[in-house]
User: Which sequence fits this backbone?
């Protein structure tokens, strides 16, 4: 999939690039490329505070980088969401008079 930045607002384009290219986003995306995981598992595996993990996943979800893969009810009756990355990799480049962001789809086989 290819996401063409709007080009009308450099602030929006920079915001998108910033959200998906920082260290925390990198660790989260890498963590959920293969198998979907709950936020608590992502947080523990990547040594990221739980609240920060929730916030970053919500932002990544807003941009379409991650999605809810499934929902389960845990032993205490609470709903647990499992997230998976929509992209395997991405690159940013400038072509002529536009900024282009290429996202390469994550079509990996789910490991169980």
Assistant:
């Amino acid at each position: 999939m290819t996401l063409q930045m709007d080009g009308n607002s450099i602030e929006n384009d920079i915001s998108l690039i910033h959200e998906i290219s920082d260290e925390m986003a990198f660790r989260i995306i890498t963590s959920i490329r293969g198998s979907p995981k709950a936020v608590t598992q992502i947080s523990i595996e990547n040594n990221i505070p739980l609240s920060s993990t929730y916030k970053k996943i919500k932002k990544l979800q807003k941009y379409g980088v991650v999605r809810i893969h499934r929902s389960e009810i845990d032993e205490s009756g609470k709903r647990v969401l499992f997230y998976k990355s929509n992209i395997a990799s991405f690159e940013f480049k400038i072509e002529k008079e536009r900024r282009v962001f290429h996202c390469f789809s994550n079509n990996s086989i789910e490991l169980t």
